[in-house]
Amino acid sequence: MDNTTLIEARDLSRRYGATIAVSSLKLTLRKGEILGLLGPNGAGKSTTLKMLAGCLAASSGSVQINGIDIAENPKAAKAHLGYLPEQPPIYPELTVDEYLRYAAGLHGVPSAERDAAVTRAKQSCGLSDVAERLIGNLSKGYQQRVGIAQAIIHRPKVVILDEPTVGLDPNQIREIRSLIASLGAEHSVILSSHILPEIQAVCGRVMIINKGRVVYNETVDTQTRVSNVILGLKRAPELSALQNIAGVSRVQTLPSGQLRLTVADGADPREALAAAAANNNWGLFELRAEGKTLEEVFVELTSGEITIHESLKEAA
Amino acid sequence: MNTVFTIAQTEARRIFVSPLAWAVLAVMQLIFGFVFINMLVDYARNAAMSGQFMGVADYIGGGLYGFATIILLLVMPLLTMRMFAEERKSGTLILLLSAPASLIEIVLGKFLGLFAFMLATIALLGLMPLTLLSGTHLDLGRIAAGLLGLLLMMMAFGAAGLFVSTLTKEPTIAAVASFGLLLLVWLIQIVGNQPIPFASVFSYLSLIGHFESLRRGIFNSADVIYYFLFTAFFLWLAVLRLDMERN
User: Fold this and answer.
1) Per-residue pLDDT reduced to its tens digit, B228-238
2) Which CATH code fits A225-291?
């Protein structure tokens, strides 16, 4: 996979009168990436996505889509974009086919290729069976799919989806998720949501926004890294014996009698611990990793008044 | 330009798949038919007298088209109210705004879609006097001038309505406001009749004055240009307004 940067937002800010919705936001999206945008309600997710899609002008800062500045050359930049807003922009009085043909034309698909584009989009979004029906008569899940089909019909390099699974039942959510995952193969996707498992399931990278600022920007693997190990031993040795095992940086006794071992960055001492416990007959009955879930990270970063990054900066 | 036609095509389709357009056309046709028959009966009764001064085309065509302007003043806001206000309300405006289409293309596309409806109205209004061809001789030039006047008038109504529709997200407010705006521009004629300074300017600005000569069969390019400028001005305002919204 090459490393082309498809979206680059620099110092993006947006004010509505006195309120600052988004402030100096930096965002990059590389080819083939699925980026999840998380944040509590009113954090500025939708505003950010609207600016990236060129529906809203930024108060300051710039957005480049595939190297083209969206403020200077909006038509060329938007040609590489597919955007599904919070509310799918569908016309209830048109049939799925009519609507998708229109969307294809609007996004500059030449008229000779429109039929093929419509068929392809219907296939990837599972709409082939309802092609002749009026969009207004479809269920919410199907309408959402029509919205997604509209966003990918011209095979844009970047697909922006604003809360694509809101209001859907669990089966539909699954289907849309697998659709998004399959989109990631061909397109780069930005996805906003406040449903954490959703982000974890489909995204390669997570960005958390709070009060218009980026407070977290890491790959999803980071969350699965072990940060603590809970160890239960019948005949626990001296704490220093444990501390000497490679990868363990601190040992703490929990009120329940178990031990919590803080793990050094990137290390995983579980195998060594099991081996040591067996060799020294410590009576091992529990050994589990305590990862920091996305939910914990989210709550930690978005509930307090001060963000982690800011507090780290102040400490440094 | 392709984008304009793509938008226009879908816009026209959306107008004609909605029951509103058909209801409006049906009611208009009923009223026009009623007025038409009335005038026909009236003319037939006084044929001997009026024949010397007025032809059929002038009396019936001109009379019908003069009356039609009032109906169109009431009807056009109902069609333009949907164009931006409803799209904004239902969130579909974003489809246009995020597409690789300039605001000018969007506004022109919408207007051209509305133009299809105007042509349908003109066709209905044109056919009525033409049915008289089977029984009498008609001055087709006069009818054509009257129809052209009506089309230009509808373009002006449509453009003004389109602009008002960009101002709000409530279709009903858009309809009421464009009706008010049109009536006001219409009534400027009254101010023009008052003994005040610049009276003639007001009277020149009025929508109604320029239609009068066309209705009587006089094709004056200044009148045609007036309507085109009026239309272009409001379409331009609509573009400006949509641009403001982005910022």
Assistant:
1) 999 999 999 99
2) 3.30.70.100
pLDDT at res. A273: 82
- CB contacts < 8 Å between A and B, how many? 71
Q: How far apart are CA A253 and CA A139, in angstroms?
A: 54
- Average pLDDT for residues B3-12, to the nearest whole number? 92
Provide the token pair at A46. 């939708």
Single-letter amino acid code for the residue at B174: A
CA distance readout (Å), A274 to A243, A271, A289, B33, B140: 14, 5, 13, 95, 102
Q: What is the pLDDT of residue B113?
A: 94
Residue identified by tokens 């990054």 is: A309
In tens, the pLDDT along A232-287 reads 888 878 777 777 777 787 887 887 778 888 777 767 778 888 888 888 888 888 88
Average pLDDT over all residues of chain A: 82
Chain A residues in contact with B4 (beta carbon < 8 A) = none
Looking at the domain covering A1-80+167-218, what would its CATH class be? alpha beta
Indicate whether A316 pLDDT > 50.
no
Other C-beta atoms lying within 10 Å of the C-beta of residue A123? 11
Distances (CA, A) of A205 to A191, A223, B139, B152: 10, 10, 75, 57
* Residue A101 tokens, joined: 């043909």
- The whole-number average pLDDT for the span A45-51 is 87
Closest approach of A14 to chain B, Cα-based (Å): 9
Q: What is the ipTM of this complex?
A: 0.85
Tokens of B129: 């006097």
Q: Which residue has the tokens 């001005």?
A: B233
Q: Do residues A228 and A262 make contact, with C-beta atoms less than 8 angstroms apart?
A: yes
Look at residue B167 in the predicted model and tell me its pLDDT: 92
The chain A residue lying nearest B13, using CA atoms, is A94
pLDDT at B163: 95
Inter-residue contact B31 to B71 (CB < 8 Å): yes
Pairing of strands A60-65, A5-16: antiparallel
Taking a C-beta distance cutoff of 8 angstroms, is the pair B128, B147 a contact?
A: no
Q: Give yes or no for A55 touching B (CB within 8 A).
A: yes
A53 interface with B at CB cutoff 8 Å? yes
Work out the angle between the directed axes of helices B207-215 and B63-81 (0-180°, nearest 10): 140
On whether the CB atoms of residues A55 and B97 are closer than 8 A, the answer is yes
For chain A, the structural domain boundaries read: 1-80+167-218, 90-155, 225-291
Which amino acid belongs to residue A277?
Answer: A
